[in-house]
Write a structure and sequence with these properties.
The complex is a heterodimer.
Chain A: E1 3-6, E2 11-14, E3 19-23, H1 37-45, E4 53-59, E5 67-73, E6 79-83
Antiparallel strand pairs in A: 1-2, 3-4, 4-5, 5-6
Chain B: H1 6-13, E1 32-38, H2 42-55, E2 60-63, E3 79-80, H3 87-101, H4 103-107, E4 118-122, H5 125-140, E5 146-149, H6 150-156, E6 172-176, E7 180-181, H7 184-197, E8 201-203, E9 208-214, E10 217-223, E11 227-236, H8 242-249, E12 256-267, E13 275-278, E14 283-287, E15 292-299, H9 311-324, E16 333-343, E17 350-353, E18 359-363, H10 373-386, H11 400-403
Parallel strand pairs in B: 1-2, 1-11, 2-8, 4-13, 11-18
Antiparallel strand pairs in B: 3-7, 4-6, 5-6, 9-10, 10-11, 12-15, 12-16, 13-14, 14-15, 17-18
Helix pairs in contact in B: 2-7, 2-10, 3-10
The chains are: A mainly beta, B alpha/beta.
């Protein structure tokens, strides 16, 4: 069971209150009509699936219902950092 | 390889069963192979076996970073069935089921395949409609499947609560009677023994750390223990770690790895002679030959490689099981474990050529790879031998996520697919 700090509520809550929304920082193509099938398919379906430090988007779905980002180790499940959407702190080793 | 038979059993009983030969040897890897298979689970070993048996290619190595059949092959809930909705997947899983039916004889190894039937419960009108559609689609594809009502279901499975007193009353079920389960370890060991007997090198404790790629084509793999091993073609069958291998080769896959958990109870007397699964309350259960109840859970929604998941998932699963089988509510759980499953956005596998020439991937089986083991190995062997997708594998290319030709088995394929 993950113990997650919600930066909006300012406290640690249990995992069941949250939903993981997958890899963070996936930018929707600015002009979807101009995308090739390959570019659009890549945006829709292909993921880094990182083994190690992984940046992902979470939502406090049964709490404040706000989104935020997490850097979590996908092997040890340790949460290294929680940060607000719109920011992107540098960390050693984290992809993207 | 010594052929197993009743006579052999009798012969070895005279020497107190102390002289049975080893099932396979641990060879030192050669410098070069025709084909290298990365991953020594059920699918990888089956691939090696069918390469040798059907295509006469025996200069093959299986590289396994741990021990044979030690990953998801050893961690699944052993359910085998082929009642998939869409034509492409129905053909693939039915191909596997047909191979299952003759597998023990083919391998001369008892995989304990038991066609005890698999029930999909319907709790709502929509469930009934979905399952009637599934039954019809299966029958059009020549796959057995039938609908039964709650009364007949109660007669066939006395342990199941089919009364109206539950929160989600059972209205009926679809049942595939040719489906069932098998002994998971025996499948890996049987394939390994048969492949080794045909000349395949099974290299355990050999971890691939990099791919050797020249001019857009793969020429070998770099291993931690044995340096570079060359090969004309490489097939990766690494389940949860497929994404890691793809990254070595310089591309991404449309798969994400999630922990999937299962659990078994203490052994009890025989109470359930079949497999029951429910999409609606989300759980499934069978009873092993030892007597323990084998229970499946859902995946954790986040990416994880740690072979363990969250307790909330187990709790949710147990709630579903007690909803279906209130009589087992006080049975104690013995063990619980997790495996890493590589899930695809459309819940169908990937058997594919890749952007790197001569490199092939067989992955994305998600939560239901065990049932496909013989079929997966069979079509992947054909793919590796031909150097292009086998006819059954063609719809399962990774490039379907560019073209949009997805095979959407989500929901259609039930809980434990």
């Amino acid at each position: 069971m993950l113990h997650i700090f919600c930066p909006h509520c300012g406290e640690y809550r249990e995992e069941e209150e949250f939903r993981c929304k997958g890899q963070a920082h996936i930018a929707r193509p600015l002009d979807p009509e101009a995308c090739s099938d390959e570019e659009w398919g890549h945006f829709m379906f292909f993921r880094q699936n990182t083994r190690g430090q992984h940046r992902e988007l979470w939502v406090h779905s049964t709490g404040c219902r706000k989104h935020f980002n997490v850097i979590r180790n996908t092997v040890t499940y340790e949460i290294e950092k929680v940060y607000l959407v719109g920011t992107k702190p540098e960390t050693e080793g984290a992809a993207s | 390889m010594e052929k197993y038979s009743a006579l052999g059993l009798l012969k070895h009983s005279l020497s107190n069963h102390e002289n049975w030969p080893r099932l396979w040897h641990n060879p030192t890897p050669k410098k070069k192979y025709d084909i290298i298979i990365v991953g020594g689970g059920g699918h990888g070993l089956a691939t090696a076996y069918y390469l040798a048996k059907n295509h006469g290619i025996t200069n093959v190595a299986v590289l396994e970073k741990g021990w044979l059949g030690g990953g998801n092959t050893a961690r699944n809930t052993t359910i085998v069935r082929s009642n998939y909705l869409w034509d492409e997947s129905a053909r693939l899983y039915e191909h596997a089921l047909k191979l299952w039916e003759g597998l023990s004889q083919d391998l001369n190894y008892n995989v304990m395949f038991s066609q005890r039937g698999v029930y999909h419960l319907c709790h709502t009108l929509q469930d009934i409609r979905d399952n009637e559609r599934l039954v019809s689609a299966n029958r059009l594809n020549g796959i057995d499947n039938e609908m039964i009502d709650a009364e007949q279901l109660q007669r066939e499975i006395p342990l199941l609560d089919c009364s109206r007193n539950t929160r989600f009353p059972v209205l009926g079920a679809s049942v595939q009677r040719r489906a069932g389960n098998a002994r998971h370890d025996a499948v890996a060991w049987g394939y390994a023994r048969a492949a080794a007997a045909l000349g395949v090198d099974l290299i355990q404790q050999c971890e691939v750390v990099d791919m050797v790629i020249e001019n857009g084509a793969i020429t070998g793999v770099k291993t931690r223990q044995h340096g570079v091993i060359k090969a004309d073609r490489v097939g990766c069958v690494a389940a949860g770690n497929s994404g890691v291998l793809a990254k070595m080769a310089g591309f991404e896959l449309p798969v994400e790895s999630h922990p999937l958990q299962a659990l078994v109870s203490e052994p009890i007397k025989p109470v359930l002679d079949t497999v029951v699964m429910s999409n609606h309350v989300h759980g499934y259960m069978s009873q092993s030959d030892k007597g323990d109840l084998v229970i499946g859970a859902g995946i954790d929604s986040w990416v994880g490689y740690g072979q363990r998941g969250s307790y909330s998932i187990i709790e949710h699963t147990i709630q579903a099981i007690v909803e279906m089988f209130p009589a087992v509510s006080r049975v104690r759980m013995n063990r619980q474990w997790g495996g890493i499953v590589d899930t695809c956005p459309d819940a169908c596998p990937i058997i594919t050529a890749t952007p790197v020439r001569n490199l092939f991937f067989n992955c994305g089986w998600g939560t239901g790879g065990f049932k496909a083991t013989p079929g997966s190995g069979h079509v992947f062997a054909e793919t590796l031998a031909l150097g292009k997708a086998a006819p059954l594998a063609e719809p399962f290319s990774m490039f379907r996520f560019h073209s949009g030709a997805l095979i959407d088995e989500h929901g259609a394929a039930a809980v434990a697919h």
